[in-house]
Amino acid sequence: MSRVQHANEPDIQDIVALNNRYATQGLTLMRSEEFVYAHLADYRVLRDGDGGIVGCAALDEYSPSVVELISLAVSQDEQGVGHGKALIEATEQLARKRGYDELFSVSFSDELFLACGFSRSALSNYPEKIARYERIDRSELQVGEKHCFTKRLREKA
């Protein structure tokens, strides 16, 4: 039985290792221990029965109303059994708790995000994301298969 929980300091190296396992394939951006430490309160991890981390996801704020779901990763041998969905739901719950109006993500996992109630969106709707890509890794903008997804968490007043 796996459980989604808050990440803790002892989890940092495992989160970095899991996330960066997919970075060479362009599925995630590289994350450092410093990045994860600085965002520890934003991470949710999925643990197996022995307490090991088999999945992770985090939030990254763009404005007081918009947040991105980042670093979604599930161990290869644990994929296809609903862990990604559980992590998306946990980060969405955190975003709602923090009062964000909108959650978005850029991913190859079209079916997963659509199954979680997200809608397709244009990356151009998030110029701040494009600016970050240009600073971090310009090649991310040239990956044609990644799509942008969005979900309204609260209606605009």
What attributes does this structure have?
157 residues, alpha+beta, Aminopeptidase, seven-stranded mixed sheet, 30% helix, globular
Can you tell me about this structure?
The chain is an alpha+beta fold. The protein has a single domain, classed as 3-Layer(aba) Sandwich (Aminopeptidase). The chain has 5 helices and 7 strands; from the N terminus they run E-H-H-E-E-E-H-E-H-E-H-E. The protein has helices at residues 12-21, 33-38, 83-97, 110-115, 127-136; strands spanning 3-6, 43-47, 53-61, 66-74, 102-107, 119-121, 147-152. It has a 7-stranded mixed sheet with strand order 1-2-3-4-5-7-6, with helices on both faces. Strand 4 (66-74), helix 3 (83-97) and strand 5 form a beta-alpha-beta unit. It is globular. The N and C termini lie far apart (41 Å).
Poorly predicted runs: 138-144
What's the domain count?
1
Supply the helix-strand structural class: alpha+beta
CATH homologous superfamily title:
Gcn5-related N-acetyltransferase (GNAT)
Radius of gyration: 15 Å
- Percent strand equals 25-35%
Describe the main β-sheet briefly. Answer: 7 strands, mixed
Determine and state the CATH class. Answer: Alpha Beta
Q: What is the overall shape? A: globular
- Total number of helices: 5
Q: Mean pLDDT, as a whole number?
A: 88
What's the CATH topology label?
A: Aminopeptidase
CATH hierarchy: architecture:
3-Layer(aba) Sandwich
**What level of helicity do the residues show?**
25-40%
Strand tally, please?
7
Question: What is the string of helix and strand elements?
Answer: EHHEEEHEHEHE
